[in-house]
């Protein structure tokens, strides 16, 4: 008896998807719960597991094809046993080398004559994805080449290498939303700087005890999340959004945290952030970061949000102007902490300073409120006791 493997039912906001990777070939054994295919939408990647033990009887869709919600994409023969010795050997080799490679990635590895052991997998369980191979090739190309190779390249006159790679659905969606933000919102940015010494002293004093008590390291992001929430309470229009000719004021604080992933930028949401303590914020952010690398974030976790925070400082950015995440009206940009001379009590001293950039929709937020909002965040970070006293 055969069973059908269907595309998951997409949410209303998602119309179709792209079948990116088959993890099984026709004739291969599959077990109940084992992921057999990845389907990428413009928001997340769905991993489709097998509902029964058996053998893959037929693959009805090719990698790269567009698929619809509920579409039949494969058939599995229940209870069948894999007969192909070659396929068994291939599985044994993968288990022996402790390397799992998706078919599309393996194809590219073979075509480029690459060593799979040198490629770091970002998929679930360390699985090497097609994107990992592309990233490896790009990094390899950018590395300085030995003199012999350089000489060879000079001898090939007129050689101008190019490659064309289709945009992923996530990348296309990011491009659409950024363009939408620029075309529909009146984006303005105000900038300030904050002395990070008080927070750094606090972390240094309580880091070990905090980690021992809560099982997670105390970072900077949790302080900024709580500072943002307290400041949003003072300026509710920044936590609002425009819907047609209406302004929607949100009575909750869902804070988006921008996270880099192999597929691109994603913004998972800290729901009801006003109810979370520092440890809970740190745990959720750490979990988001790990699952973003594995492509395991759910659609619900990256949908919505009333305000966003992005930290370009982790990549070395000294100053930038973040762009809004529609329909949100504000986003805070954190940057690199750098020792700089500042004046305190008429004396020049060196302090660890960070530039903060707050971009906002001028249609709903006036300049005065925007500046005061950023000053509020600065004051809380420079005097963390305000988080406890809520003053």
Outline of the structure:
With 391 residues, the chain is an alpha+beta fold.
Can you identify the CATH superfamily of the largest domain?
A: Chloramphenicol acetyltransferase-like domain
How far the N terminus sits from the C terminus, by CA atoms, comes to 68 Å
Largest sheet: 7 strands, mixed
Shape: elongated
Mean pLDDT value: 85
Instruction: Briefly note the CATH topology name of the largest domain.
Output: Chloramphenicol Acetyltransferase
Per DSSP E runs of 2 or more residues, the count of β-strands stands at: 19
Q: Briefly, what CATH class of the largest domain?
A: Alpha Beta
Structural class: alpha+beta
Number of helices: 10
Q: What CATH architecture label of the largest domain applies? A: 2-Layer Sandwich
Structural features, described:
- With 391 residues, the protein is of the alpha+beta class.
- The chain has three domains: 1-95, OB fold (Dihydrolipoamide Acetyltransferase, E2P); 99-166, Irregular (Dihydrolipoamide Transferase); 170-389, 2-Layer Sandwich (Chloramphenicol Acetyltransferase).
- It is 34% helix and 26% strand.
- The chain has helices spanning 85-97, 103-112, 130-142, 147-155, 169-184, 197-214, 221-234, 278-294, 367-382, 385-389, and strands at 2-6, 16-22, 29-30, 35-40, 45-49, 54-59, 66-68, 72-78, 187-195, 240-243, 246-249, 255-257, 259-261, 264-266, 269-270, 307-311, 330-334, 338-344, 347-361.
- The strands form five sheets. Strands 9, 12, 15, 16, 17, 18 and 19 form a seven-stranded mixed β-sheet that branches.
- Strand 4 and strand 5 form a beta hairpin.
- It is elongated.
- It starts with a strand and ends with a helix.
- Residues 84-96 and 146-155 have low confidence and may be disordered.
């Amino acid at each position: 008896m055969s069973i059908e493997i269907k595309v998951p039912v997409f949410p209303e906001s998602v119309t179709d998807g792209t079948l990116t990777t088959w993890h099984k070939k026709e004739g291969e054994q599959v077990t109940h719960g084992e992921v057999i295919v990845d389907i990428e939408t413009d928001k997340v990647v769905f991993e489709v597991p097998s509902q029964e033990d058996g053998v893959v009887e037929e693959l009805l869709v090719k990698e790269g094809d567009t698929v619809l919600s509920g579409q039949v994409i494969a058939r599995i023969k229940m209870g069948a046993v894999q007969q192909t010795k070659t396929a068994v050997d291939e599985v044994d080799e993968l288990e022996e080398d402790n390397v799992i490679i998706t078919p599309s990635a393996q194809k590219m590895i073979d075509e480029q004559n690459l060593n799979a052991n040198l490629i770091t997998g970002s998929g679930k369980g360390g699985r090497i994805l097609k994107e990992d191979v592309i990233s490896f090739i790009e990094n390899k190309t950018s590395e300085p080449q030995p003199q012999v190779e350089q000489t060879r390249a000079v001898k090939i006159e007129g050689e101008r290498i190019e490659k064309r790679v289709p945009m992923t659905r996530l990348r296309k969606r990011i491009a659409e939303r950024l363009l939408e933000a620029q075309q529909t919102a009146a984006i303005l940015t105000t900038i300030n700087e904050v002395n990070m010494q008080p927070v750094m002293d606090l972390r240094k004093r309580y880091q070990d005890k905090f980690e021992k008590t809560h099982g997670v390291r105390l970072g900077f992001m949790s302080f900024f999340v709580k500072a943002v929430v307290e400041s949003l309470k003072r300026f509710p229009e920044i936590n609002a959004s425009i819907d047609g000719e209406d302004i929607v004021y949100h009575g909750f604080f869902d804070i988006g945290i921008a996270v880099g992933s192999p597929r691109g930028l994603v913004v998972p949401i800290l729901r009801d952030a006003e109810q979370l303590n520092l440890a809970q914020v740190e745990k959720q952010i750490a979990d988001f970061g790990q699952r973003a690398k594995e492509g395991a974030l759910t659609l619900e976790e990256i949908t919505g949000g009333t305000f966003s925070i992005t930290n370009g400082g982790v990549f070395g950015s000294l100053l930038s102007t973040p762009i809004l995440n529609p329909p949100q009206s504000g986003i805070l940009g954190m940057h690199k902490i750098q020792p700089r001379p500042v004046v305190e009590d008429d004396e020049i001293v060196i302090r660890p300073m960070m530039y903060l950039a707050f971009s906002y929709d001028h249609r709903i937020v006036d300049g005065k409120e925007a500046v005061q909002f950023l000053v509020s965040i600065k004051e809380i970070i420079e005097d963390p006791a305000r988080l406890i006293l809520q003053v």
